[in-house]
Amino acid sequence: MLVAGNGSAVIEVENARRALRRPRIRRSLQGILPRAGCIALALGVAEAASAIAVHELKVYRGIRYRTIRALLGDEQREQIQSFIDQSHLWYQKHDPELGWINAPGGSYVGCTQNGQGVRSKHTYSREPPTGNVRIAAFGDSFVHGDEVGDDEVWSSVAESSRPGLEVMNFGVSGYGVDQAYLRYMRDGRSFSPHIVVIGFFPDDLYRDVSVFRPFLAPGTGHQMTKPRFMLRDGRLVLFPNPLPRVEDYRRLLENPEAILLPLRSFDAFFPEGYAAGPFDFLRSVRLLKLAREQALQLRKPRLLNGEGFNPASEAFQTTVAVFDAFHRAVVEDRAKPLIVFFPSEQEVEGYRAGIPPSYEPLKEVFRQRSYDFEDALTAFQATAVHLAPQRLFVRVHYSGLGNAIVARHLLERLANRGWLSMCR
């Protein structure tokens, strides 16, 4: 009886405690539920506002959320697959070191590569014949002479206009100054040129800090990677081509993020903040990633400073350093380096309106270094100022007339320097 009595007492005490706790629980729930509702409402409003902001950025600023995998659209995948299958390599081919190169013996719409990988219908001897002056030109599509036939390109016009002059055109569409320099070191110097033309088109500034071409130009037909130089304590350090084998492009199609994410530290146009994540379905997460990317971009020195190149930018400083290395190598080879600027149609029009070209700061650096350079703007202004700029261009590149003007200008300036009368 005593035990039973004590048990009843314990039960009564426990029931009393529960009765006391119930009001406290009710009061706690009454306080928590409104707070939870407020938090949920706030999160919903934030998500809705984020969705609107992401949409507005896309529509009005062209800033959109795209994962790395999404950057390889259907068309890009088809182009890469076509490249892997070797079905479209009519003029260019993959190059393990340089990214791509004009295929020796290739031809396309009036463009011919001889067996040495030079744009020409004839072959050159390894050493220039006695008494001849040999020019070797390196650079992008303006050096190569896109959109005109073999007989109209500036190098052919110059070569055919002066007996004893050879002009070897090593230009490759899409090249930066870095690839042009590497090609000279690997392929060009062995031909012992007397004069080395280093071509520069304004877009080369961006290419020199690019690795995966579609990051820089999403609509490009070049779906390949390239090497680039990095500046480390004022010295150039080469980051080799990250996809040196055709098989590497198969891996790119299979797993784009695994291939492209490691380029984050090397490609100035890598889309920061776009790595895919498990919460990407939330517009607030997407907005935070976009904001982070924009903040990172703001911390980088701009490539342009008003209308001209920004000397404080990584691209400008890297390009100058590559030019320095290129110039030094040519001089060490006992040849004459000549930098040639190829302006765009917009710059020709701007120059006639009194606007200096975007690359004027680069020319100023070359003046300080006493580098020899020529600007096709000078040629167009002197001999074609009465012509509409459209007469000098086809679509993007120089017309046959534009190429002829460049050729005559360069020959005149080289003759004035006395370079065309020299021989080894």
Written description of the protein model:
A 5-stranded parallel sheet has the order 6-5-7-12-13. Strands 1-2 form a two-stranded antiparallel ribbon. The chain has 2 domains: 1-64; 71-421, SGNH hydrolase (Rossmann fold). 48% of the residues lie in helices and 12% in strands. The mean pLDDT is 87. Helix 3 (74-84) packs antiparallel against helix 9 (246-254) and helix 15 crosses helix 17. It has 424 residues and is an alpha/beta fold.
Secondary-structure blueprint of this entry?
Blueprint: H1 2-61, H2 68-71, H3 74-84, E1 92-95, E2 99-102, E3 107-108, E4 111-112, E5 133-138, H4 141-144, H5 154-161, E6 165-169, H6 177-188, E7 195-200, H7 204-207, H8 213-216, E8 228-232, E9 235-239, H9 246-254, H10 256-260, H11 283-299, E10 304-305, E11 308-309, H12 314-332, E12 336-341, H13 345-352, H14 360-369, E13 373-375, H15 376-383, H16 389-392, H17 400-417
Parallel strand pairs: 5-6, 5-7, 7-12, 12-13
Antiparallel strand pairs: 1-2, 3-4, 8-9, 10-11
